[in-house]
Amino acid sequence: MMPSPTTSEAKLSPKTLPEDHRWSLVTFKVEDKLYRVPRHGFTDFSSVFETMFSLPQADTTQEGDTDEAPIVLPSCTKVEFESLLRVMYPTAPRVRQVDLSKEHWLDVLKLATLWDMQEIQETAMTELEGLDLGQMEKIRLAKEYRVSKWLVEGLAGIVRTWGTSTTLDELGRELGWEVAARLLDLAVQFKPMKGTARLPAPTCPEQTCNKRHSLSSFPFEFKGDGTNPLQRLIGICSGCNKHFSVADIEISSAFPMGEDKLTEEIKVIFGEELKSMELHGIV
Ligand SMILES: [Zn+2]
C-alpha cells in the first residue's frame, strides 16, 4: 500500500536532512501519469511521507528524483490524487479553503487517511459535513475511513428520523439485522410524545397583568430526556408578553429518551466498533 523508498546502505549526512529538501521536487506516478510536485507538501502534511523522505538515502539516484524513476502510488487513482494536490498546493504550509465537489473531497479524505495527513483529513471532514451527507452515507463513510464521530451521528440521525429517512429493510441489508433491531428499539424509546392538552382557562400569574386567557387547549410535543417524566407546558401571555407556566404534565408510562441520552446509548451499544475506530482513526 505505502510507497517504499530506496534505503539501502545509506549514511546520514546533513545533506539528507528533510529541511534541505523542503523545496525539492519529487515525481510520483499514478496510473499512467507522472506528477512532478514540490516535496514539502507531502512531508509537511503526511507522517507517512515524512518518514519515507527522512530515511537515509543511497548516493545513487533516489526514487522520485527524476521522471525516469518515479515513486509509484498504486493505491490511488489520478482523479483522487489530483483532488489532493488541489488542496495541498499552492497553499503550503497551511491548508486553505478550496472549492471542491463532494466526490473530490471524498478523494482527499481517502488519501489523507491512507497517508496519515491529519490536518487535511480534518479539513476534508469539515468540508464534507457542510455538504449534507445522508445518514446512511455518513455511516458508510465512517466505517470506510474510521470516523467514529460520523458513525454516532449517522446512527443517531436514523433513530431521530425513524420512519421518514430509511426503511427497516434498507437498514437490515446495509447494517445487518441485529443493528437494525437495536436502532428500532432506540427509535421506540426516542419518539417524542405528541398530543393536545385541554386545560381550564389559565390566568397570567404576573400581578400587574392577571389576564385570564380563553385559551384552553393547545398542542404539545414532549421530547423528554429519558430521565425526567415531567414536562412543563409554557404559554406566552398575550396581555404582558411574559412566559408563564400553564401546567405540569407527568408522563406515567414510557417517556422519550432525548438527544443526549440517545447519543449516550449509541456510544454504549456500538462501543466496541467505535473503540476500534478510535485506535486506528483520528476521531
Ligand atoms: Zn400577563
From TrEMBL:
One protein family per Pfam: BTB
Origin: domain of life: Eukaryota
Gene3D superfamilies (UniProt xref): Potassium Channel Kv1.1, Chain A
Listed name of the protein: BTB domain-containing protein
Residue ranges of every copy of the BTB domain listed in the record: 24-126
